[in-house]
Automatic annotation (TrEMBL), chains A, B:
Residues 7-16 have a biased composition (Basic and acidic residues). SUPFAM superfamilies: (Phosphotyrosine protein) phosphatases II. Its EC number is 3.6.1.52. It comes from Dorcoceras hygrometricum. Keywords: Hydrolase. Belongs to the protein-tyrosine phosphatase family. Atypical dual-specificity phosphatase Siw14-like subfamily. PROSITE patterns: TYR_PHOSPHATASE_1, TYR_PHOSPHATASE_DUAL. Residues 44-196 form the Tyrosine-protein phosphatase domain. This is diphosphoinositol-polyphosphate diphosphatase. It is an enzyme of class 3 (hydrolase). The keyword Hydrolase applies. Residues 1-26 are annotated as: Disordered.
């Protein structure tokens, strides 16, 4: 550890330069593309963890951006069929679709099927499926619940799980979603459902 | 690409199982720790990209969580000296501190020093400094501006840059921060300031 003055703020160490493929790849693209070629992430897009992204429903305007993620899989949390344009995008890029049809509901009739979230979580943490995008319609409730359960598995305290959920759901935050996350039991994942660690 | 039924939703492919070290490491810790050992990310914590995180000011309650990130560097965007507890945490874990003292201001007196943001951005995109945490006090304005400039370098359209900024700044969003990001010229980074790509 050391304090660097702002003049000395770049380390000239013997640390080997390592690549951060998604970041460097995407910055590097900038050199090859023109300034005018802007990318449009889907609504409510964010990185959840290495190899896991979240968003609202991607449409054709987002496809160039999605290409830059080099996705291997998508977890889609709505019951409606996937639109034809999106199906074609997936086919073109060899992306595997995992669909877990969870109905979009409004309070007080929120009823999140725990079994589907549990199955989706197994897919999400399986590194063989990464890089992976989790999305529903707006990236708020269904996606927020699944990510919240993942955070519990990562041992985040509930305050932080809810804080993250609320950042995406904003004015649409639902107490019943938060109760679902609070009650979701991750102990099953401790022994049986973890991805192979090598 | 293929559609899997929910029963067939796990691929049994010849894809080699690959590790996503931060995620699997942190999930794996769950097996070794007790259920009661919860982690508390700092206020407004999020992953920006592979190897880059953002947050508000971390305090001692967040140290266990920060350990799990295995940070190599921190970019600290406030002029105030780093608290002694935090200095000790950095020393203990060999984390390098890059401080760029940007005053916290309130509109209409927002004056973001572009040279400091530019220097901080060089540090942020240098993969030799990763994993890296960017933080200021609340993780809203100074951190939001730096991350916004990074997104421009990644060719995100301004709408998406502002959407992300607002997700963290929420009710405290500042038009002058957004103007700063809009005017920030990333063309310098195209040729000179990129990390070595190998």
């Amino acid at each position: 550890m050391g304090f660097a003055s702002e003049d000395q703020n770049r380390r000239e160490k013997d640390v080997a330069a390592e690549l951060s493929p998604p970041l460097s790849g995407r910055i590097n693209d900038y050199e090859n593309g023109g300034d005018e070629l802007l990318l449009t992430p889907p609504l409510n897009f964010a990185m959840v963890d290495s190899g896991i992204f979240r968003s609202g429903f991607p449409d054709t305007a987002n496809f160039s951006f999605l290409e830059s993620l080099e996705l291997r899989s998508i977890i889609y949390l709505c019951p409606e069929p996937y639109p034809q344009h999106n199906v074609e995008f997936l086919k073109l890029h060899g992306i595997h679709l995992f669909q877990f049809g969870i109905e979009g509901t409004k309070e007080p009739f929120v009823n999140i099927p725990e079994d589907k979230v549990r199955e989706a979580l197994k897919v999400a943490i399986d590194v063989r499926n990464h890089p992976l995008l989790i999305h529903c319609k707006r990236g708020k409730h269904r996606t927020g619940c699944l990510v919240g359960c993942l955070r519990k598995l990562q041992r985040w305290c509930l305050t932080s799980v809810f804080d993250e959920y609320q950042r995406f759901a904003a004015a649409k935050s639902r107490v019943l979603d938060q109760r679902f996350m609070e009650l979701f039991d991750v102990s099953d994942f401790k022994h049986s459902a973890l991805p192979p660690i090598s």
